[in-house]
Amino acid sequence: MEPVAADLLMALASGTAGAAGQNLWERLRALVQRPPDRQPDAVQDDGEPEVGALVGALDDDASDEQRAARLAEGLALRARQDPAFAEALAQWRREAEQLSGASAGGGTQHQEISGGTQHNVVFTRDVHGSINLG
């Protein structure tokens, strides 16, 4: 499973995604609090971060990219060890990405202008409000 994008986690933790984003963040909290349903032959990784604590840490500082990246890694690790969690996380991720418009690749962009002369070019992403170019 591809990790959840850290910027998506930060957006939901910060509340910038509105009420629907807050609901998704609370659903992630509930998901990580479920007891793991590990397969009998699954190997427990002693270095596994406690994802519940990582969610709380991102709550404390939603702009901390390192915390968000650690949470994304912790979610991916738990998903590899717990098939039921992986399925629930995949569903959660689809809904979160639809809400935020984020891509599975972490919301990266490529913008290019070529040829001729351009005036008043504006590149933007994730605008939550009006833009006036007058």
Automatic annotation (TrEMBL):
<protein>
    <submittedName>
        <fullName>Uncharacterized protein</fullName>
    </submittedName>
</protein>
<feature type="region of interest" description="Disordered">
    <location>
        <begin position="97"/>
        <end position="121"/>
    </location>
</feature>
<feature type="compositionally biased region" description="Polar residues">
    <location>
        <begin position="109"/>
        <end position="121"/>
    </location>
</feature>
